[in-house]
Write a structure and sequence with these properties.
Radius of gyration: 25 Å
Helix content: 55-70%
Order of helices and strands: HEHHEH
Strand content: under 5%
Strand order of the largest sheet: 1-2
């Protein structure tokens, strides 16, 4: 079984090296030039929403009827046409950035609240 797996791995590496424009190197795949997505699309079942969208249902430009945030394709469009993977990666990176900033802001607020609680405890203990 291990011999078959090794043979398949070697065959895969050889196929990757063929026709990729790479010279002798330690890389298994090298592309000289630009990699272009030729239209591979992937279906999607859900849309990411912010915490505020989930709580209020209206914040952040979220449209409950279309089930989409502003600037994003709705489910009908997605079902018919799929999703451009490059576009989806871009949107996911934007969402990660938004959520990271959201967490940082909330961490700052929690620290401020903890400091205020500590100050109030000290004030209470001083009496």
């Amino acid at each position: 079984m291990k011999q078959i797996l090794i043979a398949l791995t070697i065959t895969t590496l050889i196929l990757l090296l063929m026709g990729t424009g790479c010279k002798e190197s330690t890389y298994t795949t090298v592309v000289e030039g630009v990699v272009i997505n030729t239209g591979s699309r992937q279906g999607i079942d859900s849309v990411l929403v912010t915490l505020q969208d989930g709580v209020s249902g209206t914040a952040g430009g979220f449209n409950l009827e279309m089930n989409t945030s502003s600037g994003k394709k709705n489910q009908v469009y997605t079902d018919a046409n799929g999703v451009d993977l490059a576009e989806m990666n871009k949107l996911l990176l934007q969402k990660i950035e938004e959520l990271t900033l959201y967490v940082i802001d909330h961490q700052k607020a929690l620290l401020e609240q903890q400091n205020e609680i500590n100050n109030l405890k000290e004030l209470l203990n001083s009496f």
